[in-house]
Amino acid sequence: MIVENRPGAGGTVGSEYVARQAGDGYTILMGSVSTHAVAPSLFARLPYDPIKDFTPLALVATIPNVLVVNNTMPVSNMKDFVGLIKREPGKFAFASNGNGTSNHLAMELFKATAGVSLTHVPYKGSGPAMADLLGGHVNSMMDVVMTSYSYVRNGKLKPIAVTSLTRSPLLPNVPTVAESGYPGFEAIVWFGLFGPANMPADIAGRLSRELAAVLQGKKMTAYLTEQGAQPSPMSAAEFSQFIRKDMAKWHTVAVAAGIKPE
């Protein structure tokens, strides 16, 4: 297998490339929540249709975000976090990896759910955002668990809650947002494998079966868990419905947050 990186525009460059390839099973895409669920709400001229131009093969894994705050904030749980923000609306800010990124939308969903006001400070990537959070220039951030884990473990950041419906194996003592007073709240990152839309059913079926066998194997399950990812086996048909629902969810969040496609 040859891995060809085609970065750019939040993964949409590589996604467009795969969408235009032959459906012979030799070219597949590692897509994500960004390329298939969020991108339609961000790009006015997205060069592919996330549903029509791809054949969903397998959901690889889901990864929760964790809501973290720096040590300048005198809070350590969701009740205190929300209470502080409501007492002093407009005073606090949150970082994101950039406008319209998945962790930006995750925080917008939380703001709407909890009824709180936080100023958004977008950065050009995770590194600068994390640096300013650690430096006290912003107060909070939704971040994938694997990148925040070391800072939480070393006491440089305080975890408030994770955004999956179940607790993260990396942070088993950190409650979910859902169990912290907001039932049903979920804002996860996911990665999945896709083929072009014109892939014959027999090829797609075989790829899905073989990929499922690998992803559900003990070695791969252990590896994903160590990275803070949660294996999420589902059929190709279930994966297709999962994508449709996630597209609709993040479109609603983007519209409510005033994010317009560019």
TrEMBL record:
PANTHER family: BLR1237 PROTEIN, TRICARBOXYLATE-BINDING PROTEIN. It comes from the Bacteria. InterPro entries: BUG (IPR005064), Bug_dom1 (IPR042100). The lineage of its organism: Bacteria, Pseudomonadati, Pseudomonadota, Betaproteobacteria, Burkholderiales. CDD domains: PBP2_Bug27. It comes from Cupriavidus oxalaticus. It holds the Pfam family TctC. Belongs to the UPF0065 (bug) family. This is Tripartite tricarboxylate transporter substrate binding protein.
